């Protein structure tokens, strides 16, 4: 969720940054203050740079107050996002001449690319309107309810992509011509004593096999859809939201 801002600030590992790793987080805060924010004078950054000290959390909490960060120290992701926003604003201020000649078309294309890469970046899953809309779609498409509305939205997206696109509808609308079946080549396995009943039983068995094949296909599609949801590395459902 921080990749775009980290990339804008030329952070060395924007894709792999993990704010939950304590050592990485502390080093990141030191880098952010030393290279981008520079709120303290160099001689006043000693406590913040001493990342192995037991008192570092207190130093960081004081730093948050000094830069007027509105979040608490426990709200780590919100804090990181806010500090990154501050750093981006300061970076732009320091390099205004570098960015002033950027063309609107270029900015628009870059923004569209980012939105296409992260379609849920500005989505607030706690918004009541969002929840109501997802629930309405889930009911309409007969999708199983889930406590996480983002999971339901992803399931809706998968269903729409696989079943409701123009290509999928056209393919489903194509008529299928049946092939002639030689009943005498299919062994029934038992004898009712009546040739007509035997033939009817063979037909029923073939129809049943076809139904089982369709059921297996649907089961496979469901497994693929679930795997696509739970294997998505961009979403941490424990957060309750994606982006800001």
TrEMBL record:
The gene is Rtraf. Belongs to the RTRAF family. Signal peptide: none annotated. It comes from the Eukaryota. InterPro entries: RTRAF (IPR019265). It comes from Chaetops frenatus. This is RNA transcription, translation and transport factor protein. It holds the Pfam family RLL. PANTHER family: CLE (PTHR15924).
């Amino acid at each position: 969720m921080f990749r775009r801002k980290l990339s804008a600030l030329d952070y060395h590992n924007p894709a792999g940054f993990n704010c939950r790793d304590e050592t990485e987080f502390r080093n990141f805060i030191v880098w952010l203050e030393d290279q981008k924010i520079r709120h303290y004078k160099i001689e006043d950054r000693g406590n913040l740079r001493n990342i192995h000290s037991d008192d570092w959390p207190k130093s960081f909490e004081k730093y948050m107050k000094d830069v007027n960060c509105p979040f608490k120290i426990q709200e780590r992701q919100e804090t990181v996002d806010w500090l990154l926003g501050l750093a981006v604003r300061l970076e732009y201020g320091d390099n205004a001449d570098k960015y002033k000649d950027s063309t609107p078309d270029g900015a628009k294309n870059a923004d569209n690319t980012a939105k296409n890469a992260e379609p849920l970046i500005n989505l607030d899953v706690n918004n009541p309107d969002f929840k109501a809309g997802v629930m309405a779609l889930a009911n309409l498409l007969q999708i199983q309810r889930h406590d996480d509305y983002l999971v339901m939205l992803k399931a809706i997206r998968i269903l729409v992509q696989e079943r409701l696109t123009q290509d999928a509808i056209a393919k489903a609308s194509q008529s299928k011509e049946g092939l002639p079946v030689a009943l005498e080549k299919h062994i029934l396995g038992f004898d009712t004593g009546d040739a007509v009943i035997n033939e009817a039983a063979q037909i029923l068995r073939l129809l049943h096999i076809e139904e089982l094949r369709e059921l297996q296909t649907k089961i496979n599609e469901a497994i693929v859809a679930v795997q696509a949801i739970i294997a998505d590395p961009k979403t941490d459902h424990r957060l309750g939201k994606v982006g800001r």
